[in-house]
Design a protein that fits this description.
The chain is mainly alpha-helical and 473 residues long. The protein has 21 helices and no strands.
Length: 473
Amino acid sequence: MYLIAQLILLLFTIVYYVVSPIASKDIGQISIALVVAYISLALHFLNYRKDLLGKYYLKHSNLAILGVYVVHFQLYTDYVFDNIDRNDSFIWVYESVIVKGAFFSTIGLICFFIGYKLFGNSVKSREIKIVKNEATTKIMLFLAVISLLLYFATVNPLYLAGFYGVEEKGNIATYASLFFEMLIFGIVIQNTRNMVTSQNIPVSVLDYIKKQGYILVALLVVYFISVLFSGDRGPIITLGLCYVGSYYYVTKRTISLKVVLVSIFALATVITLLGEARNFEKKLSLSEKISKAFDEEKEGKEKVSFLPQTQELANSVRALNITLGYVPERHDYLYGHYQIQEILGCIPFVSIVTPLFFGDQHIKYITSANFVTWINQGDYPYMGDGTTCMADFYFDFGLVGIIVGMFLFGYFMRYCDLKFYTSGKIQLFSHILIVVYLCQALYISRSSFISELKFVVWVYMLLWINKRFLSKI
């Protein structure tokens, strides 16, 4: 019944969009798209408790749905209720496709839910053979210490003083921090696998921290402080979710809805403050920027989103607006260019021969985010415009790309949910895949769906080398 209802909503939305004359910025038509989207969302969560995984709240799908909603629906809701400036050219670069964006977003959301439902309720799992340890992580921990020291020794001091987005880290510091984050993922995942294979499951949070190691916690705290002072927030979310999420993976315990909601609210508030702080005068330090952000919150704005904590993330809808306004009228579809390029990029050294596959090597064809930026700002951009998962799918085959892409997105999220909570020991690559995508699920809505595969492959190679060589030292 649930699936039939979602299919009816999908058919209605597509038929209405195709048959009815779509205006450029008609409030009534946007409202129709939103009503359908909210009905689809309500159906999903009304069916939630009946689901096999209904007792779990920290899931890939929930984070992904939250991200998709904020990026593709929050500002449309504000638009209808006149919470924001309807003539804001920064968000609505192409006014002629505002309604089109609302309908395409709704179609994409419904396809996500259909894909999620059609996966089913089971995944293959391996029998757990009890062994003392699959592989040790001592050498990786040592390398993490070295890479963090190298990061602090080479990073641009201005970057750490709160000038993220203005000052560069420096080449060596950039690679050192990337290697450090890879090592953290590798250590947490391998330690978790060791807990499962040895049947040494943590009995409490403190026991989990002890089993992961106090040195690892110290490294994370030091790195998080530096990231916070720089004004960034991405590594805190991704590495934090890796560490916390792995606890729930190994214990299969539940977390209350209240804790989840409070955590999301607190995290969103921090993200908003840091995001707004970036927009202030470049010469101000991070503490001065945050103080100014607090002052502006107190003073209030004439018009503000009904969810101010996530408004900065919601602004990413402009990337979809830019995409719909330019393709295919002024540029042909790209027919899988970015998806194929992302997949090839996962294979070591293939980037050397990439020009053989794609003739035009202009920077706009490197990522969909680059293409959106090029559309809006030309060859000499002053900032990045980013992208969204639906814009990324739309570049390939238009509406068909969104339908297929969001269906596969939902299908994959169901796979990750089931692997995370119903499997014991799983294949190493699958384990890395579900942990990395848990950490990035919220951000996929404002990025490319396949882009995280490269990091998955890197961590896999690291753990393979560790198991074959490093752990035997």
